[in-house]
Design brief:
Radius of gyration: 60 Å
Strand order of the largest sheet: 10-16-17-14-15
Number of strands: 17
Shape: rod-shaped
Length: about 290
């Protein structure tokens, strides 16, 4: 800026041109530049106040819970498990790999529950800090189903001797024929099987010969050879003493065809039925 005095004592102040201003900006101190920018017309100068600061995002005031839910047996992630913070009424569901994340939680100490079908509930406390991610791993154990005491009852089908003797007892109860039970045999304690038959009324036993003792039924003055059945099989001439008394469970003697059960009727004489103790080891403790 130039100050001139005319001869008429009039003061005139002239403003410097733009070029002079640019020079002054480069050479003058900052206060002068500020003064010129504020008072001179023309180009403006953008100036940042000396006390201004660049603002940053304030730290987060919430916390994040992140973790994994896995099986204790094989360590594999459990998909679809529920992760709950009951005090906050917040929660989440695990991903297919068992991971989960629950964000925007208020800081503090909380109990976290993890639930999944057929697994025991896992619960543990966690500490959540503002602006931090808290990591936690939960291992689940499979529930053991408790059932009442299991009782296994095995029922085997009756053996053939049991069936035979059940029919034996039934026919004995009907009152036809003469019956010798196992109890009778043990009471008499015969040395040979033929000794048992000699004690049965109406039954005649021949002396032991080359073919062994034979059985005959007396019919008045006559005698006939009865049909002989051993364990339900028609045997014909069977050497009686080939059987030991200990091998016999029961004996049935029918003197006439009319009193003989239909399935054991053969010829015009009666029938003798002998039931052995075959398979006795398979019988129940009560015997036949």
């Amino acid at each position: 800026m130039k100050h001139e005095t005319r001869s008429d004592h009039t003061s005139v102040t002239s403003c410097p041109g733009p070029a002079a201003v640019r020079v002054a900006r480069r050479l003058a101190p900052l206060s002068l530049v500020a003064f010129l920018a504020a008072t001179l017309p023309g180009e403006g100068i953008a100036q940042t106040p000396a006390d201004s600061t660049v603002s940053e995002s304030p730290p987060s005031e919430t916390a994040t819970l992140r973790g994994t839910v896995a099986s204790r047996i094989d360590g594999r992630g459990v998909s679809g498990a529920r992760v709950l913070l009951p005090e906050l009424s917040r929660g989440g569901i695990t991903e297919p790999d068992g991971t989960f994340e629950i964000a925007d939680l208020p800081p503090g100490s909380y109990d976290v529950q993890v639930r999944y079908f057929n697994y025991s509930t896992n619960e543990r406390p966690v500490q959540l800090r503002a602006g931090h991610v808290t990591r936690a791993t939960f291992l689940l154990e499979q529930d053991v189903l408790e059932v009442a005491e299991l009782v296994v009852e095995v029922r085997r089908p009756p053996s053939q001797p049991e069936i035979w003797m059940a029919d034996f007892r039934r026919r004995r109860a009907e009152g036809f024929g003469h019956f010798v039970t196992r109890e009778d045999i043990e009471e008499k304690r015969p040395r040979r099987a033929s000794d048992l038959f000699r004690q049965i009324p109406g039954l005649f036993v021949t002396a032991a010969g080359f073919e062994g003792s034979k059985l005959y039924l007396r019919r008045g003055a006559r005698q006939c050879e009865p049909a002989l059945w051993v364990d339900g099989v028609l045997t014909g001439r069977y050497p009686i003493d080939d059987l030991h008394p200990d091998d016999i469970e029961g004996i049935e003697v029918y003197r006439r065809p009319s009193e003989t059960p239909l399935q054991f009727q053969r010829g015009s004489c009666g029938s003798v039925l002998i039931w052995t103790r075959s398979g006795a080891d398979d019988r129940t403790d009560g015997g036949f």
